[in-house]
Amino acid sequence: MNVIWIGVAAFVGGIVAASLGYLDSQEPFELRKFSASIVRALVAAVIFAVGYSYTNGLTPIDLGIAFVGGAGVDVLGNRISGAIKAGLQ
Description:
Elements: H1 2-25, H2 31-52, H3 60-88
């Protein structure tokens, strides 16, 4: 059960980071662009769930770390994809 909570925390962290990014950009919402953030949030959820499956306990600090980690994966993925797009143009 702990694995699910860690995965959910990481996924929600990625979605919150993506949502805040869209609100900050003041661009109209496009599901196609947002779907990349959903995929990155799912990847973060799986990574953190697998990583925490080897621990015995779950604390609020663990959930916070997964949340921030999920947000970080989305932000880092967005920056990398933006740099690649800028380099191709």
